[in-house]
Amino acid sequence: HKFNTMKTAFTFATIVASAAAFAPQAKPAFNTQIAAQDFLEAEPYYDQSTVPVNKWKNKAPFTGKVVSSKRIVGPKATGETCHIIIDHDGDFPYWEGQSWGVMPPGNREKDGKPHSVRLYSIASSRYGDDMTGKTGSLCVRRATYWDPELKADDPAKKGICSNFLCDTQPGDEVKMTGPAGKVMLMPEEDPTTDYIMVATGTGIAPYRGFVRRLFAEDTPAAKVYKGEAWLFLGVANSDALLYDDEFQAAKKEYPDNFRIDYALSREQENKSGGKMYIQDKVEEYSDEIFEKLNNGAHIYFCGLKGMMPGIQEMLKGVAAAKEIDYDEWLKGLKKAKQWHVEVY
Predict the structure, then answer these.
(1) What is the pLDDT at residue 307?
(2) Minimal CA–CA distance to 176: which of 85, 96, 100, 90?
(3) What pLDDT, on a 0 to 100 scale, did the predictor assign at position 17?
């Protein structure tokens, strides 16, 4: 048996050597995930002073290559959401919670200038879905415009960038900028920190990175994590759920550290018999959430900006019932950097 292992190791080494011989200029041809996910960490791993920001700019963007682009929602989902994996060969490092800018090809009709950059929250951990540290993923919903008079989608008004990304084929080039933003980073210094992650639709992206880092990968953060990460996702129906298989697997393996609650607006009712929106689901647990925040938990919101007014109103109502001054309470959370919002 020992001989077999040596033999395999020897053959593998030969293959690697011969692959390298053919591609002396390239980075190693075999980037199979063998080691732990600890090779893209700061020193110590929670030190955020070296987080990369805007390494690639509009005037000189990075060119990534599409590895795959696939639809990730069921047939009855509202709209089409795609998961796009982009190869950056290790030259575009980022941290969980950051965004990539994408410059769609072509020029604007109105003035002939290149299209402006669109920001997308990165949906993978810094190690990428293949954990090699050389790819990153985006979660993109195709933007379409329904014309009530035509009773059809008007192709002239569809979202330029989201359709470009969802239509990409493996090998296609994508011009990118960033990484952008530090508002959604996870504070990892205290491994007992609770994270409350609230998302609507593709706003799930940064949290997929968080969950993979904490529960799917062998990272320094995962090794010591003792807190609770609690995910709230609002979508229209079960077919529109995103990454549910991954989240369920994390929950099964770490039932004490990971929780998931879904708000399915077309399948569930809130307490007053209306549609179950994200704020209604969060409100069901408001006592626990207020207590967690009081004890230093961090709360994150990501999704379409229309989600925030409903959430703010709900929190205001809960605060009033608890005889808490909402504005002071919110100011305190922001001052302690426990309140993280990225909406678009």
Answers:
(1) 95
(2) 100
(3) 44
* Predicted confidence (pLDDT) per residue in 209-260, tens digit: 999 999 999 999 999 999 999 999 999 999 999 999 999 999 999 999 999 9
Q: Does 344 qualify as catalytic in the annotation? A: yes
Q: How far apart are CA 280 and CA 291, in angstroms?
A: 18
Q: What is the pTM of this model?
A: 0.87
**Is 161 an annotated catalytic residue?**
no
**Other beta carbons less than 10 A from residue 207's beta carbon:** 27
d(CA 68, CA 78): 22
Distance CA 277, CA 294 (A): 25
Tokens of 274: 């209306």
Please tell me which residue in 253, 291, 313, 344 is annotated as part of the active site.
Answer: 344
Low-confidence ranges of the chain (pLDDT < 50): 2-31
- What type of residue sits at position 9? A
Catalytic residue of the set 94, 96, 120, 207: 120
Annotated catalytic residue within 121, 124, 125, 162: 121
Distance CA 137, CA 127 (A): 10
Residues 154 and 100: their CA atoms lie apart, in Å, by 28
**Cβ proximity of 234 and 202 under 8 Å:** no
Q: What's the confidence (pLDDT) of residue 291?
A: 97
CB 104 within 8 A of CB 115: yes
Asked if 195 is an active-site residue, the reply is no
Helix (H, G, I), strand (E, B) or coil at 90: coil
Burial class of residue 206, CB neighbours in 10 A (0-12, 13-18, 19+): buried
CA angle 289, 181, 161 (to 5 degrees): 105
